[in-house]
Amino acid sequence: MKYKPLVRETSDGPVCHAADFQSIDENRLRMVGSTTGQPLRDGSVFAPGAFKKATKAFVENGLLLVGHDWDDLGIGMITSATEKNGQLLIEAEFHDTPTAQEARAVCIARLNSGKKVSVSIGFMPDWSSMTWYETGKDLLTYLEANGGTDGYDTAAIKKLGYCRLINTVTEIFEVSLVTVGMNQSAAATEANTLTFNDQFDEALGCLDSLVSRWEQIADKRETLGESHREKLASLISRLEPIAQKADAAPGADPAANDDPQRLERINQLMNRAMSLTN
Fold first, then answer.
1. Tell me: the pLDDT tens digits for 39-91?
2. What is the pLDDT of residues 98-115, one digit of tens each?
3. Are 132 and 5 in contact (CB under 8 A)?
4. pLDDT confidence of residue 188
5. Where do the structural domains in the chain lie, given as residue ranges?
6. Which of 126, 206, 250, 272 could form a disulfide with 256 if both were Cys (CB 3.0 to 4.6 A apart)?
7. To which H or E segment does residue 221 belong?
8. Which uninterrupted H or E stretch holds 218?
9. CB burial of residue 239 (10 Å; 0-12, 13-18, 19+)
10. CB 5 within 8 A of CB 133
């Protein structure tokens, strides 16, 4: 006899489901927002293909949030989303706001320490096609009679008690950074901060501003105070080995790989700083 799944009445509201953060590269992050065919902590199982109809609109309208705070403008925008090989793969880019960059810094710190950063999607399922089962075995019986179990983790599903099959997701509203993930299968893999050249250029800009400020002070006082001269001397002593190493082997030093003018900028700033210590 063909197995019939239980049907349970429920509200037609959006729900949230958590997975895990995957990687962060410069100002862009990559996530496994969810998985299909594998049971979540609450007994839900997404059917293979459940997200495919919702990904295009998610990229156009979706947000990256913190803790599903829908009253917030968000900390990032969605740049791509696709269901592939049993995973909902999401990419997003952080905004330049202080809140967004603070969240990015927390992600980097946790991932660099070997910790997980969980994410959670807010979505709308197709309630009319969602079905419930008394046990995971009942769910498997239904699947075997309706297309088979390819793409499903049958061993894990068999251990379930009361569970549900989500056949279709009609909308994905947002993906949030959260403290606890519902999906235990997706894991963080790597974290990269800004590239060396980005940091190098930013540091040179700050150093240039600092030397210019010291020059302004020196013009007004004719000479810098003893404490300022000591700080300048200390800064020069730290910069000299970097400049010498880059000058000796420019091809091996990250500072000279993309733009040889960076080394020249160091030397110019060192010369300006040294003139202030005399």
1. 988 899 999 999 999 999 999 999 999 888 888 889 999 999 999 999 999 99
2. 999 998 888 888 888 888
3. yes
4. 35
5. 15-192, 196-277
6. 250
7. helix 196-221
8. helix 196-221
9. middle
10. yes
Q: Any idea which residue has 């901060």 for tokens?
A: 193
Residue type for position 256: A
Q: Give the C-alpha separation, 33 to 83, whole Å.
A: 10
For residue 123 the two structure tokens come to 């979505």
pLDDT in the model for residue 118: 84
**Residue 166 CB coordination number (10 Å):** 23
Say how far residue 40 (Cα) sits from the centre of its chain: 21
CA pair distance 177, 243, nearest whole angstrom: 41
Q: How many CB atoms lie within 10 A of CB 84?
A: 9
Per DSSP, the three-state class of 170 is strand
pLDDT, tens digit (0-9, with 9 covering 90-100), for 122-167: 899 999 999 999 999 999 999 999 999 999 999 999 999 999 999 9
pLDDT score recorded for residue 117: 82
Q: How far apart are CA 253 and CA 235, in angstroms?
A: 20
pLDDT single digits (tens) 200-238 = 655 566 566 667 776 776 676 666 677 777 777 777 777
Do the beta carbons of residue 173 and residue 124 sit within 8 Å? yes
C-alpha atoms less than 13 angstroms from C-alpha of 270 in its C-beta half-sphere: 17
Residue with tokens 């969810």: 34
Q: What are the C-alpha distances in Å from 115 to residues 35, 174, 182, 236? A: 20, 23, 16, 38
DSSP 8-state class, residue 130:
-
* Alpha-carbon distances, residue 238 vs 153, 157, 234, 235 (angstroms): 56, 59, 6, 5
